[in-house]
Amino acid sequence: MDDGPEDGKAETGDAADPATVLIVEDDASLNAALSATLKAAGFRPVAARTAAEGLRWFAHYAPDLVLLDLGLPDRDGLSVITDIRARGQTPIVVLSARNAEAMKVEALDLGADDYVLKPFGVEELLARLRAGLRHGVQARGSAPVVTTGDLVVDLGLRRVTKAGEALKLSPKEYDLLVELALNLGRTVSHRALLAAVWGSEGADIQYLRVYVGQLRAKLGEALLVSDPGVGYRLEDLK
Ligand code: CA
Predict the structure, then answer these.
(1) What is the pLDDT of residues 162-176, one digit of tens each?
(2) At 48, is the secondary structure helix, strand, or coil?
(3) In a 3-state reduction of DSSP, which class is residue 205?
(4) pTM (global) more than 0.90
(5) Which of 106, 130, 131, 222 has the fewest CB neighbours in a 10 Å radius?
(6) Ligand 1 centroid from CA 61, angstroms
């Protein structure tokens, strides 16, 4: 964790209905730090220190997302992915050691949705969690529809309309819009947007500016607002 706690807070703000995140991590101090960070960011964390405990809490709490360390004391973390996948499509974000490339690939092949390399920053982690939750919502087929002004973003159908007309967006423009729509009325930091749209490999902020420019031309200046030096916001006009 190389970010202060206020970084995570400022950008996610209040969540009306907190998502439950199951943390399976045997490192006690990291587990506690993750719980505190997620709680501060508006999630409801549930902590487990072993694979067995993780699967028990998984059955009990039916979490919206699982944050899974692969190096667990009682079982191989990869087998936990298989077990969770046998029970459904709950998004899994794997915590992976930086030098464990092969394991990371295997985790994704087994059905993990994403991975975060240790050590990680708070903002990147939160961005990956939000992206994972978004995919989970889509997988469940009960996706929300975000409406602001005459713009309608249907996350389930992946359809965007403005004043009733369908908008043609590129995949990256759409991903960017979804991240902003899920944080309607709140500024999302440049870094969080880059991580959410381009993933852990990141991208230059110039890319972000280009895509925001394209998206703004389609949505209209009033909807996509720049918060200079901080990030971008989809204005809540309803
Ligand atoms: Ca571990």
Answers:
(1) 999 999 998 889 989
(2) strand
(3) helix
(4) no
(5) 222
(6) 22
